[in-house]
Fold each of these.
Amino acid sequence: MVGSQSQSQSKGKLYIIGIGPGSVPQLTVRAKEVIESSDYIVGNGTYLDQMASLLNDQEIFRSSMGKEVDRSRKAVELAQDNVVAMISGGDANIYGMAGLVLEVAENADLSVEVEVLPGVTAITAAASVLGAPIVNDMCTVSLSDLLTPWEVIEKRLDAAASADFVMSLYNPKSRQRKSNFSRAIEIIKRHKDDSVPVGLVKNALREEGQDYIVTTLGDVLEYNDWVDMRTTILITTNDSRVWESEHGKRIITPRGYHRKYDY
Ligand code: SAH
């Protein structure tokens, strides 16, 4: 089975597409081509609006947040006979729709060919705004406890901070979860120095509303009210630093070249 996929009997195909941070220029060329040529586009309103300029005569199945299971079922059913593009923000594998759609397809016992197309995810979109805050070992942690118990999230935050990974916090807040972000910072502070550079990026690489803050772990909670569900936070490492020039502040996490080379 290495590298091969069984040939589907149906005429349809289901693409699960990571559309990137939320603007057409940040799509992969392949994602754009597939969206433009699909029979059906399935997605929530926000993602469909972000892709509005690519929607021509495709049939649109619009659903809201919280309706992910219905949306996945619909996409799997439609893909029996049609080419369907299920669109998901960022990368569909990073807290996106890929997992649920494959689970629904597995349980539906229908023959459906699925292809997942990758997209630029929030950690790399935010990192590009901040300069070079990753460049070494990193991890992502979602602070949403809707589908993961908070105890598990705390354990992962503690373990990642103790290993001094660059940490990216997704889903830092929602209307129902206002304190998760400050609780997460307190856990990370057990292990990382207060001087560790922290970048907060809102609406990274979107056409509207991009903004960012560079601060430190010791001071980040001063910006607690600024953080919302469109924000990704990058907590860097004890080796990271801020380079300040007339062009602004950039975060640098050294890869380790300085240990081998003079520059
Ligand atoms: N699949 C998405 C993540 C979905 S979880 C991805 O790969 O990026 C939703 C969270 O992602 C948001 O709460 C926010 O923390 C982050 N996010 C998504 N797009 C973002 C953007 N353009 N700018 C900043 N954060 C973003």
Note: The longest helix spans residues 150-162.
Amino acid sequence: MTDQPKSIVILTGAGISAESGIDTFRDAGGLWEKHQVEDVATPEGFARDPDLVLGFYDLRRAALGKVHPNEAHRALARLEREFPGELLLVTQNVDDLHERGGSDRVLHMHGELKSALCQSCGIRTPWDAAMSNRPPCPVCQAPTLRPDVVWFGEMPYQMERIYAALSQCDLFVSIGTSGAVYPAAGFVQDARAARAATLELNLEPSEGTHHFTEARHGPAGELVPQWVDEVLGG
Ligand code: BJW
């Protein structure tokens, strides 16, 4: 690993929030064992059965009130405060635990549970309430709000900014993600094309673990604070 990185891109996935009590997607007992992905995480599933999809996200949004950030979220917030170089924190997670852990600059490439997207006027607006009761859009009043999350077949947010950061970073770190979903799963190769060092911090080897120059396996709540200590010099 680069001893003193100047520009770091961090990608987080569901594993970083697992120790906070939020289910991952693909682990045993994860969300995709309880729900069909094509029913709840595709535009086609939403068109077929909006009540099912709105209810699925209403439950997950409400559950955020019962969970708290863990040591891994807090360590990344400390890194944001104390690292003197460039840092981009990209999360695939739709929860708000990075923000509640103290990170001020988080790029949610797969959207956010606490945001609504109006299918009529296209506005994205902070949203903390249910949607299955079809509330009106605060801007155009149409009852056409959907969760502001990125489903399969949709374009993730801010890809230009992410690719620009990957092309200039000297360290890419992937935390708590299975490497099963693109384009995020390809970031390690994008970073390597830019000659960056690449580090995986995950409970177990991810699907793309062989692409990383270094991989450490264990719970994020232990690995991430240790790594942040190393970067900041103890
Ligand atoms: C711990 C831990 C602990 C546990 N400590 N670790 C064929 C080939 C290639 C690509 C495609 C293809 N067919 C279709 C595609 C594209 C498709 C795709 O990737 N499909 C795959 C199934 C193959 N992708 C898309 O459609 C995306 N859009 C797109 O590609 O647009 C075109 C484009 C073109 C060019 C450039 C850019 C774009 C959109 C993907 C949207 C994904 N949406 C979801 C739902 C979001 C809303 C919601 O939350 O409900 O995003 S799916 C779900 O998976 C969610 C997650 O963000 C995402 C990734 O999951 P994640 O975070 O990795 O979780 P898990 O559960 O998989 O893994 C958890 C990991 O943590 C595990 O490894 C554990 O071991 C570990 N862990 N506890 C540390 N304590």
Note: The longest strand covers residues 111-118.
